[in-house]
């Protein structure tokens, strides 16, 4: 049934055109009026009137020429055989369909020319008809003009629909582009933050290697040389990291001189958010352990972004933060009780106070440590952000 419906949707009008052409041809062959021509003129009329209907099959490729041909051929045939056109029910249907199609032509000027063709053709056909009256000279053109108006209204509606679809497509492209830019900016921000963590660790390694090298006896020349190479490699790595950071930083970005925060600074973050109007309740589960510096920073940023989004977009009065320390993973959960609809719409694009990009930033940080993220409307109302960060993730 679905295939039949799809076939009729695409080719149903073509089947109607062919059926109309067959009916018109049969009606022409069975004419019983005494005035109809015979011989070559009869064949010309039969072929012409059938072809004028079948011309509508080319309406997709020639939206103006195909229906205009129907009207022009029928008008010309009315001068050859006066009753050929006025007596055919099938040609009436074809003429009305052609008038509607002329109204739907995208080019407004061509569509108006199509109206002139339909009006002029209908006047000529009625005038050539032997039994036409003065009322027919008015009613028949008006009838086809109404058909053209139907097509014109369909044309206007189609254009509005296509314009709306185009605007939706462009808006979707803009949203995708904005999302890509947000992700790229967030990745750069994460890289700049983690640079300090990595640079500090490499600096400690270089200093320790240098201290060990100076304490080694002169007799261990080979070992001292190996440690010197390690120390020089570490210093080179630090130089390259600083050069990379300078390339990633925008011209107007100020250097970050403050220490990178971690979960130990969560109390200060909670105080700031409470002062802004959101009552935050924190629950710590399990035994807190020392976290790798990069993971500790990302965990803090995840909570910060989630709370900032709740503060800005949810309209919630209360938010709950759960920090769960496991044997091999860190669990983070931020739940607010705001409006689900508004929260779901804007949660992906809100920006945190630290310059991040809401859920985009959270997603990138979780991905960095091979973790899992679950964000969306909570079952009991509000919005829930739940992240799981393996303690060995990203290694």
Features:
395 residues; alpha+beta; five-stranded mixed beta sheet; 5 strands; elongated
Please explain how this structure is put together.
The chain is of the alpha+beta class. The protein is 66% helix and 9% strand. It is built from twelve helices and five strands. It has helices spanning 2-29, 40-54, 65-80, 82-86, 89-103, 108-128, 134-215, 221-248, 266-275, 293-314, 340-346, 358-368, and strands spanning 279-285, 318-325, 329-336, 372-377, 383-390. Strands 1-2-3-5-4 form a five-stranded mixed sheet, covered by helices on one side. Helix 10 links the parallel strand 1 (279-285) and strand 2 (318-325). Helix 1 (2-29) packs antiparallel against helix 2. The longest helix has 82 residues, at 134-215. It is elongated and about 125 Å long. It starts with a helix and ends in a 5-residue tail after the last strand. Residues 340-356 have low confidence and may be disordered. It comes from Nocardioides astragali. It catalyses: ATP + protein L-histidine = ADP + protein N-phospho-L-histidine. Keywords: ATP-binding, Kinase, Membrane, Nucleotide-binding, Phosphoprotein, Transferase, Transmembrane, Transmembrane helix, Two-component regulatory system.
